[in-house]
Structure formats: C-alpha cells, structure tokens
Amino acid sequence: MKIVYQNIHLANSHTLAVYEANGGYQAVLKAFELGSDEVIEEVKRSGIRGRGGAGFPAGMKWSFIPKNDPRPKYLTCNADEGEPGTCKDRDIIRYDPHRLIEGMIICGFAVGIQQAYIYIRGEFYRETERLQAAIDEAYAKGYLGDNIFGRKIRFHLAIHRGGGAYVCGEETGLIESLEGKKGQPRLKPPFPANIGLYGCPTVINNVETLASIPSIIERGGAWYGALGVPKSSGTKIFSVSGHVNRPGNYEVELGIPMKTLLEEHAGGVRGGWGNLKGVIPGGSSSPILSAEVCATITMDYDAMAKAGTMLGSGAVIVLDKSVCIVRAVARLSRFYRHESCGQCTPCREGTGWLAQIMTRMEAGHGTLEDIDLLSDICNNISGKTICALGDAAVGPVMGALRAFKEEFIYHVEHGRCMAG
Amino acid sequence: MATVIIDGKEIDVKAGTTIMEAAKLLDIYIPHFCYHPKLPIAGNCRMCLVEVEKMPKPVISCAMPVNDGMVVKTDSEMVRTARKGVMEFLLINHPLDCPVCDQGGECSLQDLAMKYGPDRSRFHDHKRHVPNYDLGPIIETEMNRCIHCTRCIRFSEDVSGVEQMGAVYRGDHMQVGPFVESRLDSELTGNLAELCPVGALNFKPFHFQARGWELKHADGICSHCSVGCHTRMDHLDGRILRVMSRSWNEGNETWLCDKGRFALDGLANERLTAPMVRASQGGELKKVSWPEALDQAAKILKSVKPEEVAGLASDAVQGGEELFAFQDLMRNVLGSGHIDHRLRQRDFSADELPLTRADLLMNTPLASLNGADAIVLVGFDPRFETPILNIRLRRATQAGARVVSVGARKLNTNLLNVTEVVVAPGGEVARLNAALQALDHDEACAEDPVAALLKGAKKPVLLLGEGANVHPEAEALRRVSVALLDKVGGIGPNWNGYNRVAARANAAAAQDLGVVPHRGAGYTRLERMGMNASQILEAAASGQVKVLFLLGVDPLDEALDRDLARRALSKARVIYLGAFYGSAAQKAEVVLAGLAPGERPMTLTNGEGRVQRSARAVNGPLEAKEDWRILRALSDRFAAPLGYNDLEALRKKMAASDHRYDLSRLGPGESAMACDHSPVTRGLPVTVSAAAESGAAMQLLMVSSFYRDDPVAARSKVMGQLARDGRLRIHPDDASGLAIVQDGLVRVLSGERKIEVRADLDRRVPHGVVIGDLGRGENATRELGDYSNGYPRVSLVALPG
C-alpha cells in the first residue's frame, strides 16, 4: 500500500505536471469544498499520528490552535530529518515535493494560516533546490501566494535551511533556530500551539505527516483510519538500514510484523534471520530490541511502547552478529554528546559523562561499577531535561544494557568484544 | 485564583503563579540555581524539580504555573533522587577549589552540595577546562566553575541591555562568556558577579580580600546618586571591602551600579586623619589637638562680621544630620544667612518664589516608572546619572513605552524606542516651548516629536536631569516642562509624571533641611535671603565675604567656574570640615577632620524625597570625628551653642523642623514614603529668551563624569579604571576640519583661558559642540568655564603629539 510514495517511481515525479497528471492538487480543492472544520475532522478521523517520532495525533494538534486569536498563525514543516538512520522525508522532498506542498496548503486552509515555513536540514542542499523549484512552480501556477487557486485565500511558503544541529529537529529548538537564535529548545508549557514561532500559535508537523494529508482528504479519514491497526492507522515509511540485503525506504501499513518487513521487503537479514543480533526500531534514540523480541513484534506505536522502545521516526537499524554492541552504543553516545545543546544540566553533563564512560569501556578500561553507573546516569537524565534529547541519549544505553548486558560484562572482564 | 497544596500546606494564589513563587509564600524553600525572581525564567539548572501528583515526571517549579487543586511535594523520594542526580551532574565538571574560591562560604553550589551532593565522586574521566576572560576592572572570571545557569546572560540581555555575554558551543563544551573578549560596556557589571551562584564571576576589587564568613555586615544606603539604593556594606578589620545589594522592591530591586558598589576604595585615599591648623599665611598645615583647632576656627569666625561669613556644603557626602547642624550653626550661632549647596547651579531665579518640595524633587515613585507609557528626558542621561532609575525606564520601554530625549547631546542609552532631539546648548527651553504650542494644533503636534509622544499618553513622565538643573535658564526649562506635562494631564492626583532628578545623593536633604539661602529647614520662609552659591564665590573673590566655611565640599572640584572658585579660595580665609585632603583642605587655614559615608550613621533623602537611614559600618580615622559633633563642639565657643548633645536629640530636632524626618513613626521594616510632598506649582509664566546667536567658535558643553563625580568616587582607583574622563569629545567631522585626531592633543582656548586635553572622536556629539568632562585637576575643562554669557565658546588647536 503506497500513499506517500505512490508517485515516486514515475519519471520526473517531482514536477508539477507529473503530480497533477496523477491526481495532484485535487485534494486541496476538495478541502476548500469541505470547509476548514470538516478538514480537521477528517484528519482526526484518520487517526494519523505524527510521523516525526513523538507520534502525537496530527488532527488534535491542529485543533489546539486557538480560534479567533488576533495574532497571526504559522505552519512549520519539520524537514530537519536528523535522527540517525532516518531518510524517508528526503525521498518525499526529492521525488514528490508537491505532495508536501499540497498537504501544507490543506493544513494552512484548515487552521487559518497564511504563512508557512519548511525548516529543512542544512545538509539537504540538492533537496532544497528541488523543493524550491517546486515552490516556484506552485507560485507560478497560483497555488501559493495571495489568492491561491483563484480564491481569497492567502498562503505563503518559504524554506529555511538549518545549520546542521540535531536538536533543531526538536520542535521548539526548531522554532528558536527559525527565529534566528541559537537552537535551544524552549520550556514547555507554553506549547507551540499557543506560543510558538514569534510568540504566535504555530503548527509543527513532520514532512511525512503533511505529505499524507492529500490522500486523507481525497479518500477520506475513514479510509485512512481503516489501514493499519487500531491506534496506529495508515501507512508508515520505514527506513531500513544496516545488515539487510536490500536496505531502503519501505512504505507499509502500520502493524506489519517486523520479521515481514525485514525478510520480505528489505531482502532479509544478512546471513539469514539466525544471524540477527538486534534491531534499533525507530531511529538511534529508540532502545534496541534483541533478536527474540524482533521475531514476534509488530511495527506499530503500541507494540513498540509495550516492548519498552518506540516506533520513533521509523528508522529501522538492523545489527547482525558481527556488531559489537558496546562499540555501537559508544558511537551513539558520542553523537548525543556532540548534539546536546548544553542548555540544561542533566543532558549537558550527563551525555558527556555517558560518552566518556562508553568510550573508555570500548577501549577496554571499563569496570563493573561503570555498568551500574551507566544506568544510574541514565535514570538521572531521563525525564528531567527540558526537551527529549536527554531521553534520546539515554535510549540506546538503557536498551543495550537491558538486552545485551552480558556483552558489557564481557567487555569489562576481557577488555575486548565477544563479537571478535 | 487557584488553590494549591504544597507539602500539605494549602494556599490560594493568583492563576499563573509558579510553584516556586507559591512555595515562597509558604516559606518553603525550593533549591535552585538558575531561577532569579527579577530575571526571565530559563529553567535550565533543573535543581528545582518537584513532584506534582498525577504527573509522571518531576517538573521544574520555577516555570510550572500552578493549577487549581494541584498537589505538590517538594521533598519526596522522587524529588530527592532527582536533586541528587542534578547535583552530581553539576559537580562532575566543577573544580574542587572551594578553599581558594572567593565564593566559598556564600556559594549556592557549596550550600546545596552539603545537602544533596555525594560525599565522593563517581566521575573518573576528564574534567572540562575552559578559558577565562578579561571583562574589565569589576569582574574576575574563573569559568571552570561555571554551572551554565545563564543568569549573567539573561541579566545582560534583559536588564542591562548590553548583549555582550552569551553561550558559545554546545553540550558539555558550552562556554559562557563574551562573544568577543572585551571590557563589558555596562554600568551594571557588578551585578553579574552578585548574580553568579558560583565562583565563576567574582568581584575583581574584592578578589582574595576576605572569606565570606569573616565579613561583618551593615545595612547602608548608597550615597553615590539620588536613587539611594539599599546596600549591605561588608567590612572586615575596619575596612569596607565590598558592597552588596539589599533587596528593595520599591527601589533597586536587587541591583546596584558599579559606582555604588566599587567606589568604596576611594574612602581610603587622601583622608584627613586629624585636625590641622595653618600657623601663618602660606605656612604648612600642622596637626593639632581638637580644642586647639576648634579655638582657632572660632577665632577666625569671630574676627569678622556675621555677614562676612558664608557656608558651602556638599550634598554628595554629607548626611542630613550634618547638613541640618551646619545650617543651624550658620544661621543661629554665627548669624549668617549665606549658605548653599548648589555649586553646580547657574540659574537661581527660582529662589524668589515659594517653590514646593514637589517642584524640586521626583513625583513619580521609582516603582511606578515601570508603568510609564511616554517618557520625556530633558537634559537627562539616566543611564549615567542614575543607573538604577534607568533600569526602571528600560523596563517601561520593554513594555512598549516610547522615549524622547531633549538635550544638547546624544545619549549612550540602552532604552528602547528612543527618539533623540538634539538642540544647540541652551536651546531646550525654546524646543519644549514649541512642543507646548504644538499641542494646540493637530498638524504641528504630529510633526513635533515631544508633542506627538505626550498627546494621548496615559502615564507620561518627564524627567529633568543634571543637564536641566545646571542649565543657564534652569527655571524657565522647569516651568515649560511643568506646563507641557500639565497640558496633557500628566500632573494629577492619580498620576504625577513631573520629576526633577538631582544627581547628588543628598541634594533633597539639603533642600529639606535648609542648606539654601532662601529657605530655612522644613521649607520655612526667611525674612532675609542670603547669598547663593554663585554669589558667595563672587563675594569671596571680591573680598566681601571674608571667611568661607566649607562642609565636605571642594569648590575647585565642584563649582562650574573653576577660576572663580580658585580666586575665592585664595582671597577668603577658609575653614574646611570634611573627610578628604582635597584642594579646599589644602587652601584652608583650619582643617577639621570629619568622617565619610559608611563611617557614621547618616540620613539620606533620595530623589523621590524618601528619607532613609544608613548605618555605620566601620570607624573612621582615629582622630576624625562625626561632622555634626564637630559643629556642636565648635558652637560651644559662641554665645548660643547648638542644643543637641547626641544623635537622638539632633534627629528629634530635624524631625521637629520637617515631619518627614521623623522616622520613629515608621514600624519595623517600613520604608519612608516616596514622593510624600505637596503638589507641583502649576501655571507659572514661561519666558523664552532669544535664541543664542551662533558664533564661529565651538560651544563647550560640560558633562559630569559619572564614575568620578563625587568626593569618594573621585578618589577611587576602580572608578578611575572605568572612567574615561579628562577627554574632549568632538564629532569626527568637526575634528577632521581642525586636523584633530583620536587621542591627539588639543589646546582649547576660551578668551584668556586655555587647557590642553586629549580628544575623543564621538559621533554622538552634535556639530559645532565640544563636550568636556567636569573633571578634576589642572586640565579640567572647567578651567574654561565662564558662564556669565551662557555656554563658553572655545576655539581648538590641534597640537603635535
């Protein structure tokens, strides 16, 4: 079932002509017919949850924007796609930018927004060019601007390129960065729906979420809601990477067994399912799952939460038995140390400490006390930081300690990895 | 309203109150580092985490608003664990150098580590090292100790408006400091060190001087400007080593300016330690006993007729007690009505009128200035005259108030929404009069920045500063200001926006207590008016006044016309009573060694007319005495001695002459009333003199140097490092025409008089004007001062070298 990726196999799928030839920009017209309240209802009915990682229902988010507020409202598309392992939004922007633009227009119409921004990852240089070309096409055609589609509706769209900070993928860090400040997340409350960009009500959605909107409006929220499993409706793109035979982006219905995703779609684990060591199921910040769990788990929000991990951004990182878990965690810890914004104490000091211990342990200088210390530090970071980056940094360490503690002990006792 | 239960105690608070504030009301202390009641909330230290029922995670109490029915636990297991975790994180990269850290003993981190810190570290990896910066003469840095609470950054951005501090880099590499290493361009830098919860930012002048627990404390009132900030003087072994702020919501909140904090080292320089007498004309001053000195002073005073004696007093370093006793002595013991404190003033025409206290002081309490919506500054540089008042104005502008500054120069301001109306020196009256006329016509009103600002303002304030008070037509300027404000309804029972802000700390007390020639203590009318400061100096120079009795004032440093002061001091016999061996003491025949602020209990009346008492912190030099006691002892040598033998009796007498000085009516902890005075006199006619013709020569404007402009600050080495005085400021365009370069030597000529100074090129100086500091020393621009015909005209010659 392809929704977001339905067109990307077509030649020149990024152009307005191809998009329109395949039914593009029809949903927005239908949205105008439905009226703004009904659009929000449709989106709520679809049950689509935010595809950026947190999984917050998108329709709810839209309905939180205060009505009859004199302040301008803003829509911000989070295209920062910084979660290691994730590359799904990139393909939407590269191969179907108009789907994103149409989704944004629909959102803007539904919520009453006249100015929208796409905050795109700084490294996405060519993607920015292609997206800008699509925006230019849409402006030329009158789909963006002061009177879009010949109606008295105003909707402007601009791209802002980030500077390459992971933390700017966090919605309030993104807003700060968009405002020209240092990318440091804000305290919540207040939430962006009330005080966001420039102190005004702001909707922030992920690229994939917004790109799903045209199909939801076109075919109805009920249709979309029927896809997938309860509470995890619709399709999701999984960026499968690591030790599989055919890594890549796969759009599948939510609730698909992980084994099916890996074995049928991604060409199977390298060396066969028996060679699987573990899977990081939702981007680098989600705790790793051991091979036994992977055999039975399904790819949906609730099942993941139940297993103590999360669906996150849908970046499935497959690790086979050649992987040294300690080394992998050490690398991830160094990433989070580097990307911590430094604002709040537990994350600033904790990520650095974790990375130093993990690096030392990897080099064979760890102690058994270090293992307990790691989980203590994780507990002291988790849930005590301004934004979720602290929890994200804790995820890989806690997950690995839970699933592969014996590897840590082996590493400490032998000064090297059991994986060889 | 919301009802919230914190640790089992219930309290009703306003909706939107944070848990931290609500807990404070219940006297429940929640540990914190980054939270500060007067700064924006950052929520980054995470020390104030508390448990809220029905919330899965601990929340930060500094930022979380209470909800009705919220149940908060500030000392549960979850909270203690969280705090221990945060504490451990803060300590892993913190150096263990408490024994050599100035903050030791008064450090939040140290205190909270006692309760929540581990007794040994589990951190065995590499500690962070970060560079230190030279931030100028006030702040010493040891940035390894920084815990990144960002109080200094938030203060710089929000309060001082100087965005020099920031955090660079990310994660545990984050470094707090200036983006570009340089001296902080702010008059409020000392607050950074006071705000810093650890020892990262320390006071440079206090560095390694004492440990916090050795210090004794005395509650003081700052005597360096007319705001009268509440201070705590920290002293050890008879020396005041540090001045910290006392929290005072109606005034300085928790801030102090750098002058108030660090001019104190001036107290130790050029002090008079014993009474001295000059045996013969031109002879040397010799130390004598107190009876000898007083006898000699009495002899001099008795050798002339009463009207040949005149008294000048300082309103900067003298307390109300001395000022009161001084006028009492002059009038009732010596029988002379020639007494004044206004050596900087030029226009004394208002002395003829019965002006009220409200006419001469502020009428908007400091605390209400935040609420102003339109601000007119007339000859007022609030940032460098009364920095703490300026914070209030800045708060108002942050809330949207607009400012128009009318004056002869552009300001180095940190207020927002400022329109600067620069007039030729002396042109302020005509300018404001034009605004007054414009208010009647809609079109003209829209074009006139002052009128446009005031029209429709609900809470307008107008502040007259030093530039207006020393103006050649000060009274006309004052009247037109009153008329302007009155016309827009800015002077009323509910909102009075008329403010005359004196630069000097105790000018209000000098006025109240009768150290003026035209009024007695408590605004009583006199039958005969004495000579004013300007007349006294003229009369002394001409020999009409034969004895000058100086109370703490150096006319050479103070009077606008330095040459006149020099002639006066040379001609008249001088009795000097004060703390410093300055130019006046050097000329005096009898020197009576008095005490300085901090060494005696003082009554100080601030710009709002609020009467405040400053305690004694230390003893002065051994032989020096309280000034009023010296006056009392001197009066014994005359027929009718002063009738008070102790401070209580003196204060009772002061209170009897002006009820505002009766502080016994105040309950404990109560502060005297601000702006407790009669209404502003309205409807006085305004006369605008013809505009001064513009000649070819440059006009000289003199501005007092903020960091040097009182006897204590002038002797402070720290202030010397901060001040950039003794310079002649000139616009670069004017300078290039005269071949004057930055730092180049310039000869400035005014008639027969000349000085040589170095030039500062400054685009804020108007064309055709040069600005000199009212400095001290031989090359002070005041040497050129001849104010008989408005502003001095000078010509400039660039000199080589």
Architecture overview:
The complex is a heterodimer of chains A (420) and B (801). By secondary structure, chain A is an alpha/beta fold. Chain A contains 18 helices and 13 strands. Chain A folds into three domains: 16-226, NADH-ubiquinone oxidoreductase 51kDa subunit (Rossmann fold), CATH 3.40.50.11540; 235-320, Roll (Ubiquitin-like (UB roll)); 325-414, de novo design (two linked rop proteins) (Up-down Bundle). In chain A, strands 8-7-13-10-11 form a five-stranded mixed sheet, with helices on both faces. The mean pLDDT of chain A is 96. Chain B is α/β, with parallel strands linked by helices and 801 residues long. Among the domains of chain B are: 2-92, Ubiquitin-like (UB roll); 295-353 and 509-665, Rossmann fold, CATH 3.40.50.740; 370-500, Dimethylsulfoxide Reductase, domain 2; 698-798, Barwin-like endoglucanases. Chain B has 26 helices and 34 strands. A seven-stranded mixed sheet of chain B has the order 14-13-26-25-24-15-16, sandwiched between helices. Chain B has a six-stranded mixed beta barrel with strand order 29-33-30-32-31-34. Chain B has a five-stranded mixed sheet with strand order 2-1-5-3-4, sandwiched between helices.
What's this entry about, in short?
Chain A is 45% helix and 14% strand.
Instruction: Report the radius of gyration of chain B as a whole number of Å.
Output: 28 Å
Categorize the overall geometry of chain B. globular
Mean pLDDT of chain B: 93
| Count of DSSP-assigned helices of chain A | 18
CATH superfamily of the largest domain in chain A: NADH-ubiquinone oxidoreductase 51kDa subunit
CATH class term of the domain at 295-353 and 509-665 in chain B: Alpha Beta
In helices, the fraction of residues of chain A equals 40-55%
Largest interface: A-B, 35 and 37 residues
Quick one: how many beta strands of chain B? 34
Q: Write out the strand line-up for the largest beta sheet of chain B, numbering strands in chain order.
A: 14-13-26-25-24-15-16
Identify the CATH class of the largest domain in chain A: Alpha Beta
Neighbour order of strands in the largest sheet of chain A: 8-7-13-10-11
Largest sheet data of chain A: 5 strands, mixed
Rg value of chain A: 22 Å
CATH topology of the largest domain in chain A: Rossmann fold
Largest β-sheet summary of chain B: 7 strands, mixed
- Overall 3D form of chain A: globular
Number of helices of chain B: 26
